[in-house]
Structures are given as structure tokens and as C-alpha cells.
Amino acid sequence: MTEYDYIVIGAGSAGCVVANRLTEDGKTTVLLLEAGNPPNLPEHQVPVDWVKLWGTEVDWAYFTEEEPYLNNRKIYCARGKVLGGTSSINAMIYIRGNRHDYDHWQELGNPGWSYQDVLPYFKKSENQQHSASQFHGVDGALSVTDPLVPAVTSYRFVEAAVALGYERNPDFNGSQQEGAGLYQLTIKDGKRHSTAAAFLLPILDRPNLTVSTGALVTRLLFEGTRTIGVEYLHEGTIHQTFVNHEVILSAGAFDSPKLLMLSGIGNAEHLRSLGIPVVVDLPGVGQNLQDHLAVPVAHQATQDLQPALTSNIAEAGLFLHTEGRLDAAPDLQFHSGPVLWAPPAYAREGPGFAATACLTNPQSRGSLTLRSASPHEGIVGPFTWGGIIGD
After folding, report:
1. Side-chain half-sphere exposure of 384, counting CA atoms within 13 A
2. Max CA separation in the chain (angstroms)
3. What is the C-alpha separation between 24 and 343, in angstroms, rounded?
4. Mean pLDDT on 16-35
5. Through-space distance between the first and last CA atoms of the chain, rounded to whole angstroms
6. Per residue in 206-241, pLDDT tens?
7. Sign of CA dihedral 107, 328, 298, 144
8. How far apart are CA 275 and CA 234, in angstroms?
9. What mean pLDDT comes out for the span 304-331?
10. Paired strand residues for 352
């Protein structure tokens, strides 16, 4: 019977860090399970090519159900299916949560989650180009750098925002998030620096760490209501592995609730309707899904605006309050870059630039439910924003 001290499900933005920290103790054994494979596509290394990764084998390529308030469209949701998770296919922008959100989490009854509590861990993880400070560290594994060759339109976006009365902000992760500036990026030596590149690949030789890729976890194993291990599919064979201490579920906002429900943790009525034995009746699983809507406004250009290979495309940003509540997190965020970023129906050829408005504090809530009891099926959400299918 195979046993580990810890089993980590999902080698994404969180799982790679967790596996790294746990195996610093040479006596602690860790199994890290990832449904995807190593990031072997050339587009993984070239920052400007990140959009080319969407819809490929390294993307779960989820879609919402038809959204009644979005003209019944199904909205695409890219999610990384690869070592590094979505940090291996995203736009590489380094943005922490807002201090007001962390403090609110603690106020809700979660000690240890205030901004002052989590800040040391942000500092511990980063290697900040701007040197160490009250808000930043330089001894961490994750490279955080300024854009190497920002486009002229990115500078113009910042200047326009300042001309309209918004503050210039050289550090969105510093004393305040509000204002306009250039985003810092998780890029190292001109290449994407995912959590896999930063925290996992350098420690693969640790004898107490086992990494299994192409391993789809199908359910958690229980003794009563205590988790004792996992079942997963690897190369066509079902495996069961057991744990001495804890199973750590870090499969993301979509696949974590999916696996909980497949394992019998969720709304009992929903689980029974699919023939899944109920381990814990926990109706909140899959509920209260929140995500931001992004609305691009694109402009054709009269001159070539070809972004640099090191560009993340969304180079400049702006955070603001639409209702003047300075005691809360900004509720609107902009991304600006030198491309014609527009939905396929409105796509145009040639040079251009775009500014995308993102709602960072949505009031609507979505949900996730299972389509079937099979781990190979997707998940579906019948409400507002956030229902996901796996096809």
C-alpha cells in the first residue's frame, strides 16, 4: 500500500508552492498529482504568445452555460491543464488581492487572513526587481519584473489616465492599489516564470517529492468522514494512494468543488440525484462563484504596434472606485495593450490597441453543479455567471 505524508491535488498556482514548502523538511514525503503534463509547448516560454495557449491541450477550455443576461452566450473560461496550472497560460500580471479584501476575510471570522498576516508570505515568495521594501521581498523564488519593452500606447494610456485626474501608481502591490501605471509581470530573463518554473522544477530532485503528471484524481477516499487518501487515473489504470497526515485540494475554483462533489461532499439532494453516496451534506460546495466580467474596447491603429516578444499584451492598468468608497477595494480595473483585443465576432486584421474594463467586485453570484457522476464529464451551472461545462 503506497502512502505519503501529504498528497497535493493540482500542481497549479497554489499546489507547486505547497509542494515546495512541505518538502523543505527532508523527512516529509509528498505526492503531487496533476491532470496535465509539463509545459512543453514553445508558446509557454514566449510571453507575447500566451493567448495561443488557449484552447490547446494545456487548457481545460471550460465554457459557461448559456447566460440569459449576456444574450444567451456561452462564455469561455481558460483554465490551465499543465504543470503550473493557469499561471502557465495566463497574462503573467503580478497582482495581489487588495488589503481591504483580506481584512474583510478576517472580520468574517477567519483569523490569520488579514493583510498584515498574509503580507509576509507574499514577500517570502517573490524576487522583486525593485529591491526589498516594506511591501516586497527579494529572496523568494518567483521573479517579479517590470515590462522590458512597453508599447507606446501603454505609456499613452497611463498619461491619459493621469490627465483625467487619476493618480500615477508605480506599484499596484504597494501602499495603495488605486491609480494608473504599468503592471509588473512574472517574467524571468524574458520568459514566463510560472509557479512550476519558480517553485517546482528547481526541486524535482528532492527524494521526498513525487510528481505524477497526466494523473486525473477521480475521488477522495474516506474512513467515515476523515479523508485517508485519493483515487486517480494514470495511463489508463486506476490507482489508490493513502495519506498519513493531510490531502490538500488545490485544483482551482472549478475543479476543487467538482472533486468534492464527486467524492460525496456537497448538496445531498444533488448528489443523490446522480447516485453519488453522500459523505457530508455541505450545500455550499459549488455555490457563491464570483468572477469578473471583462469588456474590451478596441481601436484600429494607423501605424504598426507590434508588441515585443516579452510583452504580456495587457501592459498598462488602472484601478479605481466607481462609487467613491475609498474604504473598500477598487471595483473597476483596466488593462491596456497594443493589440486589437476583441471577441471573434468583432475581430479585425491589422494593428490596433485596446482597453479592457474588468469588474473586480461583482454583485452577481454563480454556481457549479455536476453533470454526472463521471469524473470525465464537465460541471454545469444553471445560474447567472459561472456555470461551467467541460466540453
Report:
1. 13
2. 67
3. 45
4. 98
5. 35
6. 999 999 999 999 999 999 999 999 999 999 999 999
7. negative
8. 24
9. 91
10. 300
